[in-house]
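4.2 Preliminary Data

To establish feasibility before requesting continued support, the project team ran the inverse folding procedure on a target of 464 residues. The structure was first converted into the token representation described in Section 3, and no sequence information of any kind was made available to the design step. The complete token record follows.
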């Protein structure tokens, strides 16, 4: 909220009302002041727009809570002012949707701080809305029969609040499917919140999901809203759900069954209306058998399963996606999109894409930057699509063919390359089960996850 903002001030105490009006005007606001809640409701009901309502709690005929309830569902900010300061009043006001609570006598510095907080919050909301709209604005590219089948299921279940489990290899486009489930349903105008369960430190996952109260743990200086609260009346995507610790799986199951939870360090049960979508590249059924994932949570998530096929199983998507990615990169760099030569198109079409759509996007980014004369050639692509770099298949085969052969093939090459090759080989040997691979390699699952992510961002594309 950037001054001058339109502010509705309601206070039956003349001295307090005059002070607040002068203070708000001194801070650049345009103020309409009334002497009770009934008058405030009349102005709001007449269709006048206000950026902010500042209201006393106890007033004749209509209270500050009555005024708050009238704007709680709108984008109008609300600050409650009261001389009857107590934690119960503040909690109730925040529960009903107030943005801040100030206790009389209000100081100018307190009011200025409250307005600054509102301005920062409004700016973040606007930025999030912009990024969400940008994310949801582009229609997915559907050229193959396999993906048409996927989105036929999306169309059938988008309008339902039912939990959906999206599975598929890393980089296939599971988040795109989740986005379409949100965009095509009745919650499209609500928040779309994403959580990568594998990327969060285990000690902080509960706080990230459910929030915490001030003092809940060392460093918790103030209340924090969790992702479930932020996703209220919208959609929450839980990516890499297979990496969620067992202790948190039980709490997630309870939220799915009751639509309520308690913040870390809190006692009050909070009700939420959230559609949950889970995504994973792990085989959850196998993890259940191995006691690494709760069976009851799996069944609760797996009400509507959607499997996203790998790119090699939907080759008709490859060239349209490549051209879209080139066009997007060209737009980002304010340049013309290069042309894919016929031999280059053939190479792209017949390549197996172990890193799926993510690998293709990364390759097109590189092609735009390094192509010459506005053309992407077969010769240029062939140097980037060698088995050694992208699948490590030939390197692993050479390294494991025999002891002497392995040493000879790897002499003179960085140790990191050997480690990466064996990580990829181990992943394939256990059918991409990250927990099993981590156990065999002697790594923590999150350490393995970070190594795989590093491989992807560096141009390699593990099937994980």
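Position-by-position output of the design step:
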């Amino acid at each position: 909220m950037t001054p001058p903002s339109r502010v509705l001030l309601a206070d039956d105490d003349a001295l307090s009302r005059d002070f607040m009006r002068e203070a708000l005007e001194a801070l650049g606001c345009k103020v309409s002041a009334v002497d009770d809640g009934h008058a405030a409701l009349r102005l709001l009901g007449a269709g006048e727009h206000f950026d902010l309502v500042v209201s006393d709690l106890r007033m004749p005929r209509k209270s500050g809570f009555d005024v708050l309830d009238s704007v709680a569902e709108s984008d109008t900010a609300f600050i409650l002012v009261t001389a009857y300061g107590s934690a119960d009043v503040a909690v109730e006001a925040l529960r009903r949707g107030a943005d801040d609570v100030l206790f009389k006598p209000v100081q100018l510095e307190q009011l200025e701080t409250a307005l600054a907080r509102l301005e920062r919050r409004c700016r973040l909301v606007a930025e999030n809305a912009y990024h969400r709209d940008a994310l949801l604005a582009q229609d997915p590219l559907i050229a193959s029969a396999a993906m048409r089948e996927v989105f036929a299921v999306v169309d059938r279940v988008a309008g339902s609040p039912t939990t959906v489990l999206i599975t598929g290899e890393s980089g296939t486009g599971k988040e795109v499917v989740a986005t379409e489930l949100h965009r095509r349903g009745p919650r499209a105008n609500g928040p779309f919140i994403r959580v990568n369960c594998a990327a969060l430190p285990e000690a902080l996952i509960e706080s990230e999901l459910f929030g915490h109260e001030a003092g809940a743990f060392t460093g918790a200086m103030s209340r924090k809203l969790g992702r479930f609260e932020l996703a209220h009346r919208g959609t929450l995507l839980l990516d890499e759900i297979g990496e969620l610790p067992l202790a948190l799986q039980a709490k997630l199951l309870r939220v799915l069954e009751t639509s309520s939870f308690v913040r870390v360090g809190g006692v009050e049960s909070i009700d939420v209306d959230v559609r949950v979508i889970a995504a994973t590249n792990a085989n959850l059924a196998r993890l259940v058998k191995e006691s690494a994932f709760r069976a009851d949570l799996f069944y609760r998530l797996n009400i509507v399963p959607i499997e996203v096929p790998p790119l090699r199983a939907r080759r008709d998507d490859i060239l349209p996606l490549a051209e879209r990615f080139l066009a997007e990169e060209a737009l980002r760099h304010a340049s013309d999109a290069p042309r894919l030569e016929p031999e280059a198109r053939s190479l792209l079409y017949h390549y197996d894409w172990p890193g799926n759509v993510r690998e293709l996007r990364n390759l097109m980014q590189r092609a735009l930057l390094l192509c010459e004369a506005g053309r992407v050639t077969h010769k240029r692509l062939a140097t980037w699509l060698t088995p050694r770099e992208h699948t490590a298949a030939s390197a692993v085969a050479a390294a494991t063919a025999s002891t002497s052969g392995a040493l000879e093939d790897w002499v003179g090459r960085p140790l990191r390359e050997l480690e990466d090759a064996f990580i990829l080989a181990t992943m394939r040997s256990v059918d991409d089960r990250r927990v099993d691979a981590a156990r065999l390699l002697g790594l923590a699952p999150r350490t393995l996850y970070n190594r795989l992510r590093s491989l992807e961002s560096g141009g390699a594309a593990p099937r994980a």
